[in-house]
């Protein structure tokens, strides 16, 4: 994730050469890439104003973010509360050993190790980080209905319930957040592409 932050800083450092506005940069990503984009949107800015080098001085905060099929929380208890007990995705992100365990057993170990992992969860989970500082966000789960039509792993990994949970936190924090899924269209934008285009035009 820090590599993504440095990539954004590099792009901004090339603003004059590439004829871009460094204050007007949107991000989008899918699945884990969407989680990374949300992390950049919700994490405190990593710019180092005291650095003698140009790149580290650049902001890591995007102007807006479109996140497609995003995992919006990395907290196993919150994941289960939002998405359901069928969710078994996530332990690998924290290097949890999978030796001989079923998928459900691996997630149970993830929960058992949660306390030790909390510093990492709080550092990298968008749901833990979201606050009034975050830019406008568009969450898109268009391939999925809120309730699963059939119990496929892909649904639980990319469930609109992830988006619903973050959208509620965003509303509480006063952050503009749009949510679209198969049985709910967004009233303001036809999709994530229009969201990015319109947001970047206005900035």
UniProtKB/TrEMBL annotation:
Pfam name, any one: BD-FAE
BD-FAE-like domain mapped to chain residues: 1-71
InterPro entries named among the record's database cross-references: AB_hydrolase_fold, BD-FAE-like_dom
Domain of life: Bacteria
Name this protein carries in UniProt: BD-FAE-like domain-containing protein
Phylogenetic classification of the source organism: Bacteria, Pseudomonadati, Verrucomicrobiota, Opitutia, Opitutales
